[in-house]
Every structure is written in C-alpha cells, then in structure tokens.
Design the sequence.
C-alpha cells in the first residue's frame, strides 16, 4: 500500500508531537497561580523552577542533536517523547519548589530533543522549497499545544474531585486538580508513539512512499541514502554560521519564552484576570501559529521566485524585526482588548522570525549533521530564556526576602548592576526591551555575513 503525500503525513505526526510537548510545558504556567499558592512559591522561586527546566533544556540540546544523528530520527524521537511524558506524570507528586524544580528539570531533558529530531525529519523528507513551510507546520503544533493547554488543564484543575470522584481525590493530600492535570497531559505522548513507530522510516526505507514522491524529495535536495560521517564537534564549533545563528536565537527567543512562561502571570497580576479568565491567552497562541505558517509560506514563495533559501529567510526576518517595536505599547494601552491585539502582532512576528532562522540551519548544514548543529544553535535559545527569567523575576518581585538559589546567585554575580537597575520596575521595561531584540539580532547576523552562507544541503 502507498500513501499519497506521505511526507505531509510525517509532518503531521511531528506537529502532534509538538502539540503534546507544549501542552506538557504549559501546564505549569497555565496553572501557576494555583500551584504557587498550594506549594508556597513566590515569583522568584517560580522563575527558578522555570530556569531549571531551561537549564536541562540547554544541556539536552547539546546532547540530543548528536543522539538523533546517531540513533536516527525514528528511535531518537520516540526516546524523547517517552522521557518527557513520564516526567510530566511524575510531576503530579511534587510537594514543594524543590521537587517541582526536579520534575521540571527532568521534563526539560526530554522535551528539547524533539526539535533537532523534527529538523532532521524535515531534512530527510522535504525538498528545500518546502522546508520552511514544513518547519512552520510542526512549529505551529507548539502554538496549538499552548492554545489547548489552558482549556484542557484549567477544567481538570478546577473539577470537583472530592464530590464527584472521591477515589481520585484520595490519591493526593491536596491539590488534586492540578496534579491530575499533569498526569493526564503526560499520558498523551505515550499514545502518540503508536502511529509514529508504525509510520516513520527514512524515505528509501519506507514501503508506503510512492516512486513519484521519492523522486520529488531526492530531486529537491531531500534525503539521499549516502552514508557520510557526521561532523565532529570541532567542525561544528568552527563553522561560523553556528555562532551567528546561536547569537541570533539567544537575543530573540526570550521574547517567545516570555509569552510562554510569564504572559499569563502578567495578565493575572497587572490586568486583574483570575485563573479561569486566563484562557484568553489562546489569542496570542493563535497568532503564534499564524506566524509560523505565514513565515514558512512567505519565504518558500520567495525561494520559488528565485531567491536563494538564505536570502528568502532574511527578507522575511527583516519584516518581522520591523513589526516587533509594537511591544512597548502592550503595557501602555488601557484596554485589555487593545493589549491582546498588540501582543498578537508581536507574537506573530516573533514566530515568523523563529521559523526562518530555524530554516537557515537546515538550508546550510549537511543532512548528516543537521541534528547536531540545530541543537547547538538552539542552546542559545534556552540561555537567552534563562536570562529573561532572571531579569523579569527581578522586575516584577523586587528584592527577595528569601535566600537566593544557585541560579540567582550566579546570575547576580554576572549581571548584578542590571538586576539592581530593574528590580521592582514591573513588566514595562521588558516590553520595551522586546522592541529592540530582533532588529539588533538581524544587524548582527548581517554584519557577520550570514547572507553569504552557501547551502550545503540543497
């Protein structure tokens, strides 16, 4: 039996993995007010829990790409999904900030691996003109997961278990609702494994692909079954575009992380929304999904019109950088509706940018080393996210009365004056900073010569 358009079914599975990934990730932020109250966590402790996740994410990025290149996309992806799903289930038994931080650290070790695996799947299954769109499609899974998460986990967290399901309520001493939410969302990934293991193979190994589709993939620079040794770490780290792209993501990904981890809290504390009303965050995640698709589609259209892939990505990134200066007005406008519209515009641009900077990796790196290089570049993303968390936590909470954790102390040693300058200033300085991150990153990428990079995988 042959499946028509099998490559698109493959990307649908990767999309669903991303949905599961972000549902598990967003369970904490969607339920943060309730969990913080139950576990006695202040905003700095919340930031430390998030940073433990991102620290593990950074470590896992550096390892997972090489692991995917060695194990292959099919086995590597399955390993990561099982790991993060079980980590999310175990979170249901967290008893305080330390155990919650440990569980989120374990989650981060698993969740990072899906992204280098996804980029490798795209390099194997898609010609160059379709890669940005494919990346946009699976990245949209992250935004769909973020949209779904509050609508799934908030009802689970607020359900009357004591009155209607006393057996379930008896499993936990307190916080039954949010604990059940972690269990249910963790099990979603386990179910996803069934179609993945049945369907995914490399194109030439698949019995389900048609001859025409295989020819299209290989003629367009997709997977060709030639055994080549992957790059060594010396080759990876001496490849100049790796550092340019890492720096680009370090500067710009914090904007997207802010919307994942802090925007719901901003709406709660600065706009007065209660736990149930935080479902409104679906608006920014819809915008993120639209940005993912639009960014991939637009650069793909420029490739079809004759632009080189890297040039096409950079033109779209320029448009995104021009849109990000709407960010400061989000905190300035009086009405909630106006703030949400502006936030949607900023997130649309941030995700369209992210799709295209990710596509550049696939454009210029040989297929045998895409996973490794992608993971190194993406490590810059999580380092930027950690810095954002520390800065925003200081902005919104002011000086802490509790002893700082190792992340607080280490960051203060490096950026003590910056922390002192922004402590207690609220969210507005961060919204202002987000106006400049993407334009600055684009200038650095251009000055570093990323536009002159030649595609190694086309």
Sequence:
């Amino acid at each position: 039996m042959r499946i028509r358009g099998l490559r698109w079914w493959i990307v649908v599975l990767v999309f669903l993995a991303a949905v599961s990934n972000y549902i598990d990730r967003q369970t904490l932020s969607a339920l943060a007010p309730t969990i913080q109250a139950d576990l006695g966590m202040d905003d700095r402790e919340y930031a430390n829990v998030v940073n433990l996740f991102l620290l593990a994410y950074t470590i896992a990025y550096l390892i997972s790409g090489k692991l995917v290149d060695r194990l292959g996309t099919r086995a590597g992806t399955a390993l990561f999904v099982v790991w993060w799903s079980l980590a999310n289930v175990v979170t249901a038994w967290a008893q305080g900030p330390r155990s919650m931080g440990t569980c989120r650290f374990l989650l981060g070790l698993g969740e990072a691996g899906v992204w280098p695996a996804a980029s490798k799947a795209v390099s194997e299954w898609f010609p160059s003109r379709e890669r940005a769109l494919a990346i946009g499609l699976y990245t949209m899974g992250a935004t769909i997961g973020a949209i779904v998460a509050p609508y799934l986990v908030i009802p689970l967290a607020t359900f009357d278990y004591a009155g209607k399901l006393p057996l379930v309520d008896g499993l936990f001493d307190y916080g039954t609702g949010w604990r059940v939410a972690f269990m249910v969302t963790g099990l979603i990934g386990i179910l996803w494994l069934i179609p993945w293991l049945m369907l995914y193979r490399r194109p030439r190994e698949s019995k389900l692909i048609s001859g025409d589709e295989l020819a299209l993939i290989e003629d367009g620079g997709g997977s060709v079954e030639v055994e080549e040794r992957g790059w060594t770490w010396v080759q990876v780290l001496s490849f100049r575009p790796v550092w340019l792209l890492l720096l680009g993501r370090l500067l710009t990904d914090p904007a997207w992380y802010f919307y994942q981890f802090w925007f719901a809290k901003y709406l709660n504390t600065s706009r007065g929304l209660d736990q149930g009303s935080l479902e409104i965050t679906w608006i920014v995640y819809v915008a993120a999904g639209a940005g993912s698709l639009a960014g991939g589609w637009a650069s793909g259209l420029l490739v079809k019109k004759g632009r080189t892939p890297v040039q096409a990505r950079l033109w779209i990134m320029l448009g995104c950088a021009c849109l990000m200066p709407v960010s400061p007005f989000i905190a300035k406008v009086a009405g909630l509706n106006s703030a949400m519209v502006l936030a949607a515009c900023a997130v649309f641009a941030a995700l369209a940018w992210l799709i295209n900077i990710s596509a550049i990796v696939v454009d210029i790196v040989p297929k045998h080393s895409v996973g490794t290089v992608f993971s190194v570049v993406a490590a810059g993303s999580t380092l930027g996210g950690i810095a954002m968390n520390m800065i925003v936590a200081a902005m919104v909470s002011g000086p802490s009365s509790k002893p700082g954790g190792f992340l607080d102390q280490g960051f203060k040693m490096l950026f003590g004056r910056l922390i002192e300058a922004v402590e207690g200033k609220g969210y507005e300085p961060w919204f202002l900073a987000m106006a400049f991150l993407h334009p600055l990153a684009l200038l650095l990428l251009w000055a570093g010569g990323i536009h002159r990079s030649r595609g190694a995988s086309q």
The two ends are 30 Å apart (CA to CA).
